[in-house]
Amino acid sequence: MTVADPAAAALAEATQGRRPSGGMLRYTVRRVLTALGTVVFVIVVNFVLFRLLPGDPIGLYTRGRNVSAQQLVKLREQLNRPFLEQFLTYIRNPFSSTLSSTKYNQPVWDVIYPHIWPTVLLLGVSTILSTVIGIWLGIRSGWGRGTRFDQVTTGWTLILYAMPEFWLGMLLLLVFTGGTLAIPDLFPVNGMVTPGVDTSTPAGWLDVAWHLVLPATTLTLAYLAEYSLVMRSSLLDELGEDYLVTARAKGLRDAQVRRRHAVPNALLPTVTLIFLNIGFIVSGAITVETVYSWPGLGLLSYDALRGPDVPLLQALFLLFSLSVVLFNVIADVLYAVLDPRVRT
Amino acid sequence: MSADASTPSRQPISGKALARARMRASLARNWREFRTQRDGMLGLIVLIFFVLLALTAPLYIHPDAFDVAQATGPSMAPPSLEFPLGTDENGLSLLPQVIWGSRTSLLVGFAATVISMLIGASVGIASGHFRGWGGATLERLTDWFLVIPFLPLVIVLATVLGRSLINVIIVIGITSWPGTARLVRAQTLTAETRPYVDRAKALGGGDWHVMSRHVLPNVMPLVMANTVLTVAIAILSETTLSFLGLGVPFAISWGSLIEGAFAHGAISAGAWWYLLPPGICVILVVLAFTLVGRALETVMNPRLRER
What is the pTM of this model? Predict the structure, then answer.
């Protein structure tokens, strides 16, 4: 639960003697520039890491494909060019150039593209659900600290937090589709649509939704734990604050103090965490998509890993990293919008 | 050290002895505090149980228990008197495998945490201590590593390095340090504003002296609480790696048992005895580490005492 706290970092920076220079725009520009630096770092890492792979690189890049001797010579010649030149070729277009998936024998981007939407759908639904439920649970248990509700909620969220999400997914599958307990055909075992169903019709959407239930439930349960715990502890942080005493002294009802005063302040860290996490759950979906054979980026990563389909793995790693960088910038800017103190 | 100055009238005690006595006193105080934390004690008991289980496993489990050629049971049999946790796809009893699995999971968890803590604490202290480009570079590096998504990086590194026990430990260790580094850096910045650090510098204390004698003792409690939480994450990582087939080759771990259940159709066969025990063990151990870590945080950080 090592949650980075931007407010604390900003405060620490302020104590170093940096003058707050103010301005939402300047702050945003600085964040974006920092993110661009990170993008360069990510691309360099991606380039270097895959050149450290043991074995014959040509063999890894062409495994299982029919490659003519001429092409092999050309590839080898490409890899024999100066390191810097190779790097320049790579950064010019990290998703194409010589990169072709060894398993699918197509440019990596063509392989990746159809897998993006299933992942966006799955992660979108489970992020919204886990956020709403997690925050609600966190508020209720934090506000009523020590109550029965708090004890039960905190206990269960800690257990969910300790649970490998793919194990939870398998457990749900076991309960709902396998074994003696299961009601036959209540939920499908795997995939995103029933073969032959057209996904552009309302009936097709229902079919997708039906397939979505179990994987989305798994990810929702897996991620709401963290949101609930963070929401609870940041609400507890606010409980001792003077402005709550003032609000109570004004004669506001308990619910009003909670909704109008405590929760908006306590929401800050949780909201940032949610955006920071969106980047991470993109990659966290790898195991759950594998369990449910959900045809998204996670399952594709698993397939690429099994090969190993090195060019595909490389492109996926880049895509995951870039999405994390993007959501980090959004989180930073959003935090500054919500909390003027960090605009240093 | 300052310890000498504070006891001028009595028999001169060496600074080291005094420091040791103080440390012992503070440990005793912390332990008394920790014992009042019910959840933390519960976690500690669970941990001791699993560590003992892992250490003593070779005393009562014979390697033959994992030899497919000597399997005696039927394939995927439900629990019985002979096989208390049922059997796997090869007809091997699952109970000894689950017990044996604790060895890999705990070993990888502890060893990876040591690496992670060493990197995290040194980078954190150094980036907080050194102003100028050195500290800034380390800070940037931490931020960059924080951004690279954990699991894909682990997968890529595991693919690049190849599979072995050491590599699994290294991979988890070098991917889980940035959070610690950030925490330690913030604490270092706070510690360095204290007057006694200025005093040490004024008396000619070098970078190394300040970092090792003044900052380190200050961040140690934080590092300790964080260590315990990191072990939990490292164990979960090992489980995930094993599930993806990137774990320690030929070793039985809880993750590899879950992978086995997945790969050999335990779900469609309704073989709950194959799936449940390794998962429950992971949850118990990770939960225990989390509880101990939270209790330690509470002991070390009085601000959290109210929770």
Answer: 0.82
